[in-house]
């Protein structure tokens, strides 16, 4: 029989799994449409190297999954879950600037 404590951790695993699954699904759907056009784009000087995307997104997905779990446990939204979303918001700002720059350059 599941205790309340183990049920909480099942939800944590579920939320983290869903975060990573959606990432996998997005990569699976778009993998056939990335090349050759993406490598031919003119990119700004601050474009990060390709290897950085995997660890950054893995970290963001873990933080988002944990934040959702905290919201589920302690409704309403608490301070920790809000702080866990700041790296994602920072990434959104950087991604907007990067995409806009690529748009302008091409």
Please write the string of helix (H) and strand (E) elements: HHHH
Report the helical percentage.
55-70%
Fraction of residues in β-strands: under 5%
Low-confidence stretches: none
How far from one another are the termini?
59 Å
Q: What is the SS-derived class?
A: mainly alpha
Give a count of the beta strands, DSSP E runs of length 2 or more: 0
Count, helices: 4
The domain tally reads 1
The rounded Rg comes to 17 Å
Shape: elongated
Mean pLDDT: 82
Characterize the biggest β-sheet: none
What can you tell me about this protein's structure?
With 106 residues, this protein is mostly helical. The chain has one domain. Helix content is 70%, strand content 0%. The chain has 4 helices and no strands. The chain has helices at 4-30, 53-73, 79-84, 86-105. The protein is elongated and about 55 Å long. The N and C termini lie far apart (59 Å).
How would you briefly describe this protein structure?
The protein is 70% helix and 0% strand.
Secondary-structure map with pairings?
Blueprint: H1 4-30, H2 53-73, H3 79-84, H4 86-105
Helix pairs in contact: 1-2
Keywords for this entry:
106 residues, mainly alpha, 4 helices
């Amino acid at each position: 029989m599941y205790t309340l404590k183990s049920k909480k951790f099942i939800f944590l695993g579920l939320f983290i799994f869903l975060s990573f699954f959606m990432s996998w699904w997005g990569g699976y759907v778009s993998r056939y449409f990335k090349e050759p056009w993406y490598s031919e784009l003119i990119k700004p000087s601050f474009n990060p190297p390709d290897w950085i995307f995997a660890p950054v997104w893995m970290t963001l997905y873990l933080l988002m999954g944990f934040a959702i779990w905290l919201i589920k446990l302690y409704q309403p939204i608490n301070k920790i879950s809000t702080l866990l979303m700041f790296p994602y918001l920072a990434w959104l700002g950087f991604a907007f600037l990067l995409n806009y720059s690529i748009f302008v350059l091409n």
